[in-house]
Request: fold
Amino acid sequence: MSANYAEWDLGSIYRRDDVERLQTIFTALTALADVSVAKDLALKALLDVSRKNAPRCSNWLAQTAAAGRPSLNPPALHTALANRNLAAAKFLARHSLKREIAAIADGGLFLAASEDDSESLEIFIPHVNVNKANASGHTALMVAAAHGSMRALSMLLPRSKREQRDNDGFNALMHAISRHNEDALVLLLRDASEKEITGQASGNSAIELARDAQNKNIQFGLNPETARYFRPHEMVKARLEAIEISKVTNEAMARADGVDPESNSRKSRRV
Reply:
């Protein structure tokens, strides 16, 4: 008999994603009690199952739990985020109403940014203001920069205010520098503005922070032959030089346009 009992062990069912055996259990429960018992049990099991690699069981439980209900289970979304269980939150969000997702979207956005989960970002971004800051003044872009979340950075950059500062006067660029995230720094510097680099808040600027970080001579890699050093100051200076070259080029082009005979002729006709 013990072998038969093992066949109905929930852990075994979830590992095999055996939705047929799960349905048989719920059919038996419904026969013993009523349909509402099965719905309540499915609802309680859903959060735990969504953590496991059992998509067929998870989807069936969600359908069972939601049957006859106006919505799925908003508290489960809150519980998943409180436990920093992004996989569960992502699954539950797919089975929830928009207003329920919106209620937890801020927390979901920050968690997805820290864990570089692009699928979750796609779920939460439409429901939030990505520039909304938390109590520390951090935005999702700053969180992604601090954690080196490259996919999140790529998704958030076009939607974010890059020059926005937190309570300590740090922008996203400065978070990448302070956390020694070289890849994030490279991405942020591609279109960084002069104000973003040299502007100060609370006595801080990205160029000064980069200089201080480089002076610490932070090394990546233990092998002396292959090790490389974090050189944020050189990287930031290179971006400033590119900005300056662009300025000079634009000014030269503007002067050239001003002395162009055809251009002067057009200006005269307009006058």
